[in-house]
Design brief:
By secondary structure, the chain is α+β, with helices and mostly antiparallel strands. The chain is about 30% helix and about 35% strand. It is elongated and about 105 Å long. About 25% of the residues are buried.
Length: about 200
């Protein structure tokens, strides 16, 4: 008789456990019936002020126009940093006098750009010629996750050579910095196109 009671308790326990699992299974299947809708496409909105340009001139053998919102600091030998604190970007300008070394300076400027070819998706070259001001050069647009996305050099071929490159103080993710990169690239092109020798 004792054996029969123990067998019945086991059967009761097993049937209760089975019922509990069945109820839980039904609850899980019926609880997950909410319709799922895709989220609408959205874009990060970055508003930058309309660029206003001012003349920059000092004792160096060249002058140019720059964005009035940018902060310029002089370094030795007519090199400058033009920073954009809100965008965490800086344009680096370097000046070198030409002393029968124009081929070396050109190769060096081109080499600096093409060092980024590993990370770049594309490098677009845009020649620049202004014979009235004797300013000749090249503007490089570097697409992709490279450390710099714009560079240029200008020269008069006989006395002066200026290079410029922009760097962002953020991980180089082209998609996320693209609006700021486009804004600073426009400023850099304006700088190059307004550069004049003294």
């Amino acid at each position: 008789m004792l054996r029969l009671k123990m067998g019945n308790n086991r059967q009761n326990r097993n049937s209760i456990v089975g019922i509990v699992f069945t109820v839980l299974g039904l609850l899980l299947f019926t609880a997950c019936k909410d319709d799922v809708f895709p989220k609408p496409a959205s874009h990060l909105r970055l508003d930058y002020p309309m660029a206003k340009y001012v003349d920059f001139e000092n004792d160096c053998p060249f002058s140019f126009e720059m964005n009035s919102e940018a902060v310029i600091k002089g370094e030795k030998d007519c090199g400058f940093t033009i920073s954009y604190p809100k965008m965490k970007a800086t344009i680096y300008l370097t000046y070198k006098p030409v002393n029968s070394n124009i081929n070396f300076l050109l190769r060096d400027a081109q080499k600096l750009t093409y060092e980024h070819v590993i990370k770049a998706d594309d490098i677009l070259e845009q020649p620049y010629l202004d014979s009235s001001k004797k300013v000749y050069g090249m503007f490089y647009q570097v697409d992709g996750n490279a450390a710099t996305n714009s560079q240029f050099y200008v020269t008069d071929s006989t006395k002066h050579f200026v290079t410029g490159s922009v760097y962002f103080y953020a991980k180089p993710n082209y998609d996320s910095i693209m609006p700021a990169a486009s804004y600073v690239r426009n400023d850099m092109q304006r700088l190059m196109e307004t550069l004049k020798w003294k």
